[in-house]
Design brief:
By secondary structure, this protein is of the alpha/beta class. The protein folds into 3 domains: about 90 residues, no CATH class; about 200 residues, Leucine-rich repeat, LRR (right-handed beta-alpha superhelix) (Alpha-Beta Horseshoe), CATH 3.80.10; about 190 residues, no CATH class. It has 14 helices and 25 strands. It has a 16-stranded parallel beta sheet that branches. A 3-stranded antiparallel beta sheet has the order 1-2-3, with helices on one face.
Length: about 550
């Protein structure tokens, strides 16, 4: 028989909580829980000490043997007997249901192996069904091709043993299944619909690496009309996570997810107009995440008034036009595209990663300085990752009258390419101070394709007076002459700067470090920046 010690231990913790929170429980109430292990260790018998357990206010009390005083006073010779130990399953069924509901899926299923009563309880009250490699197979089983069919069979066998609870809280399937397993997945989708599952996940990406979208012929076709059959309704679904599927939204009878709050789509292909047939009907949506999926633009005819979080990664869109007045956070990885979010005045934080341009001497600084302020004028914290080409040909660019009027924290992650002696090319970054008049913290993190260090500082560029900037951090900033010039120019502009940190180490993740180059850059930065205006402000790490 499977060892259930860990599951019993978790059950004891849950019981500890339930006793402490039971009606009528007070600090003076005492209880004790004892695990008796007998035999060869393959059987665990949880028991309770009857003399120490108190429940509620007389709702359920274990039988307490007579005390020694009562025996003496009765003038009867009654032999002393050992108190009867109470088994854990002697507790009321509603308490046992609550204990099981607090355990993980794996722990609760192990408790179902203790006895027939535990098995019956588990079958009737399991609120979460989570089917993954970790829950269905032993650790170390890594042969995914050999286990797909076995995985489906085990899930089917387990579902046949369960009694239908009134409502299923969570249903998760995370395994690398493909279209040839359609008959099994159809049965599981129908099971979710029948039991009115609130949080549904079908993730078939295991085995598909990186941002590769996968082969279209392999993907399972997910039909949404299953949730809108006559005796069922999709109104109970609160969150939906789909990965590596074809999504069919044009089936007849589908009425939309009226109460859906969170939608996550990863490596999803669309058979028809996903935006107007499905997304526009999700009026309660608060969280939308789409990644590595195939559609070119996000434009909706209806507003998403409750949407607070928007994430779009590697979808290669051409346009985003959205009316979301309560949007507070934006996370975007894409080529530079038009962003129409003018109605989103509550955006507090944005994380933008811009992909490469395919033109000579092309970078995204024009887009950063013109399009982003118009799309996100009220953002307070902004992080941008983009390549920056440093050539003399790029010393000028278009300027705009639009500003980041509330931006206080700006972080730039900039892999640099080009000529390290092109001071004019790197000084274009100084224009960011004009774009953010209330900026307080500026972080500039650089990475280089080659290394050129020159010992010179010029003062021919007129500074822009900035009274709010207090903190500047520049990592990888001691390798190019242009960056030394940029640090000097920022110091001249920021009249109230409290401190500036220059770190010669490259802090962008996934990049190697060169110790001798860092030490050389550190030494040159200290020599170049020992000027009067840097005294008491500059720190070189």
């Amino acid at each position: 028989m499977l060892l259930c010690t860990d599951a019993c231990g978790q059950a004891m913790k849950s019981l500890h909580f339930l006793v402490a929170s039971a009606p009528g429980h007070c600090c003076s109430t005492s209880y004790a829980i004892k695990l008796e292990v007998s035999g060869s260790g393959n059987q665990v018998l949880p028991s309770l000490t009857s003399q120490a357990l108190r429940f509620g206010q007389g709702q359920w009390r274990p039988r307490v043997p007579p005390s020694t005083t009562d025996i003496v006073s009765s003038n009867k010779s009654v032999p002393m007997t050992k108190p009867e130990a109470l088994q854990l399953h002697h507790l009321p069924d509603d308490v046992l249901h609550r204990i099981l509901s607090r355990l993980t899926f794996r722990e609760s299923s192990r408790m179902g192996l203790l006895s027939r009563k535990w098995q019956k309880l588990w079958r009737s009250c399991c609120p979460k069904l989570i089917f993954t490699r970790a829950t269905m197979f032993k650790p170390g089983n890594k042969t995914i091709r050999r286990t797909r069919t076995n995985f489906a069979r085990r899930v089917n066998s387990l579902l046949r043993q369960l009694c239908a609870p009134p409502t299923l809280n969570k249903f998760v399937v995370k395994f690398g299944l493909r279209r040839k397993h359609t008959c099994h997945v159809n049965r599981w989708v129908g099971f979710c619909s029948k039991l009115r599952a609130r949080h549904i996940t079908f993730d078939f990406t295991p085995g598909v690496k990186g941002i590769f979208r996968g082969l279209a012929d392999e993907k399972y076709i997910f039909h949404l009309h299953v949730f809108s059959v006559p005796d069922r309704s999709p109104a109970h679904i609160k969150s939906l996570h789909l990965s590596y599927v074809w999504l069919n939204t044009a089936t007849t009878g589908f009425t939309g997810f009226a109460n859906l709050k969170k939608l996550t789509l990863h490596k999803v292909s669309f058979l028809n107009d996903f935006q107007h047939l499905m997304l526009s009907e999700c009026t309660a949506l608060e969280w939308l995440s789409i990644s590595c999926s195939s559609f070119t633009e996000l434009t909706l005819c209806k507003p998403l008034r409750r949407l607070r979080y928007l994430s779009l990664h590697y979808c290669y869109m051409e346009k985003v036009e959205l009316e979301a007045p309560n949007l507070t956070s934006v996370d975007l990885t894409n080529r530079p595209i038009p962003l129409a979010l003018s109605e989103s005045l509550k955006v507090m934080e944005a994380n933008i990663k811009l992909l490469h341009k395919s033109v000579l001497y092309g970078d995204n600084l024009d887009y950063i300085c013109t399009e982003l302020p118009a799309a996100l004028p009220h953002v307070q914290k902004l992080s941008i990752t983009s390549t920056l080409c440093i050539y003399d040909e790029l010393q000028s660019f278009a300027k705009t009258s639009v500003r980041f009027i509330n931006l206080r924290h700006l972080s730039l992650y900039l892999p640099l390419y080009g000529d390290g002696r092109s001071v004019g090319g790197i000084l274009r970054l100084a224009y960011l101070l004009e774009l953010a008049p209330v900026l307080e913290e500026l972080e500039l993190h650089f990475r280089f394709s080659d290394f050129v260090i020159r010992q010179a500082i010029r003062v021919d560029m007129l500074p822009y007076r900035h009274d709010k900037l207090k903190r500047v951090v520049m990592s990888g900033a001691c390798h190019w002459q242009g960056l030394i010039e940029l640090a000097h120019h920022i110091r001249r502009c920021a009249s109230r700067l409290d401190f500036m940190i220059m770190d010669p180490m490259v802090r962008i993740k996934g990049l190697p470090t060169v110790d001798w180059l860092e030490e050389r850059g550190r030494r040159i930065a200290k020599e170049l920046l020992k000027r009067q205006e840097f005294q008491g402000v500059l720190t070189v790490l």
